[in-house]
Amino acid sequence: MPQAFHRAGLILGAALAVTLAGGATAQTDATTLLTGFGDFSGAETQLGFDDLGLVNGDDIASVAGVDFALTAGGPAKFFEDALPRESGLPGIGSLNNFWGFTSPYPDLDVLLPTPMHRVAFELRANAADDVSVTLLSNGELVEELVVPSRGSDAFYFYGYENLAGFDEVRVDVVANFSGAFSLDNLTFESLGGEDPPEDGEALPSFTCQGFESFPPGRGHGRLRGHLVPFRVLMAQLIDADGNLVSPEELAKPPAIRVVFTPDGSDESRDVTREVVWAGVEHFTPTRRGQWLAWLSNWRMREPGVYMTLLESGDPASYGVDPVCADLTWSQPPDPWHRWQHRHDRR
After folding, report:
1. pTM, full prediction
2. Pick from 59, 153, 272, 302: CA 20 to 30 A from residue 111's CA?
3. Are 328 and 300 in contact (CB under 8 A)?
4. In angstroms, rounded to a whole number, what is the distance separating the alpha carbons of residues 175 and 180?
5. 3-state SS track over the chain
6. pLDDT, tens digit (0-9, with 9 covering 90-100), for 169-209
């Protein structure tokens, strides 16, 4: 008996408790909250935590001259976290403050090799918590900022600029509920005494509108009660002037990313290659200005939640903010329904 599928569409990052992604920057004393990695000049350093040969719970004391320490003592810990990054950057490696600890969880100290003026990262923390970032220089407080967590369903962007400079960043999640966090894509740069780049120098960022889905109707993925072998997701990319983005404007087409979380588990995994139709891991343009992705329903039958994302296919040349996301719930077959169906056929 085919499994039942239910679906809901959403746009990540569309409604935020604070203005951190999209729109104008917010000013808090000497520190400006950045809007995305596009606010960097292009000369920044960005650290991911993949390809380090580590497993969950391994120590990360230093990467590329940056030292990491927990306030409870000892280095930071490695953690594989497959939930998507808001930026669309690939990878599952991250730092965390909870592996091997119990609540209250420690803060993370990031010691930079030289004074910097901008720092950012992507982080996920319980939506009921607050994210506190303290900037220090030679051990002296530069500024502390506290903003509401943007959520734990993905790694969300947090970024800061302070022209006074800092060489240490302390990250703490205020435990209104949990206090645990994972962090990835640590990015920093020094302005070298120069003025920040003009807004026009930032990478272009496009808005995703969607998804529409075929087959339509209540039983998404079904026609006349039967599970069809595929489902099509359709979206549009819109530029800052409200125009549709054409394929000629993009170095690479938007990428597909599918993350699966099994029922009864908090662990997620990337299943893109398993569920995309015919192995195509990017969206295909149409003459109507839409971007299409084909998914195999037959390969999305394990009980749990499948989250499909439209992300930038080339983060070095353009961004997508907010991204589009589709949630598909796969449910196990109902034994009573199966028995009744057999009974009805007699």
Report:
1. 0.50
2. 153
3. yes
4. 8
5. CCCEEEEEEEECCCCCCCCCCCCCCEEECCEEECCCHHHCCCCCEEECCCCCCCCCCCEECEECCEEEEECCCCEEEEEECCCCECCCCCCCEEEECCCCCCCCCCCEEEEEEEEEEEEEEEEEECCCCEEEEEEEECCEEEEEEEEECCCCCCEEEEEEEEEEEEEEEEEEEECCCCCCEEEEEEEEECCCCCCCCCHHHCCCEEEEEEEEEECCCCCCCEECCEECCEEEEEEEEECCCCCECCHHHCCCCCEEEEEEEECCCCCCEECHHHHEHHHCCECEECCCCCEEEEEEHHHCCCCEEEEEEEECCCCCCCEECCCEEEEEEEECCCHHHHHHHHHHHC
6. 999 998 888 899 999 999 999 986 444 445 445 678 999 99
Dist CA 97 CA 20 (whole Å): 23
- Single-letter amino acid code for the residue at 326: D
Best CA proximity match to 95, nearest among 184, 178, 157? 184
257-311 confidence digits (pLDDT tens): 898 989 888 788 889 988 898 778 889 999 888 999 988 888 888 898 888 989 8
Q: Which two tokens stand for residue 58?
A: 């391994």
> What six digits make up the tokens of 96?
């965390």
* Tokens found for residue 65: 């001259």
Domains in the chain and their CATH numbers?
Answer: 4-13+203-335 (2.60.40), 34-201 (2.60.120.260)
Question: Is residue 216 classed exposed, middle or buried when 0-12, 13-18 and 19+ CB atoms within 10 A define those classes?
Answer: exposed
What is the phi/psi pair of residue 202, to 5°? -70, 155
Please give the structure tokens belonging to residue 327. Answer: 């949630």
Query: Which residues are CB-neighbours of 262 under 8 A, at least 6 positions away?
Result: 302, 303, 304
d(CA 244, CA 204): 14
Q: Give the tokens for residue 313.
A: 């296919």
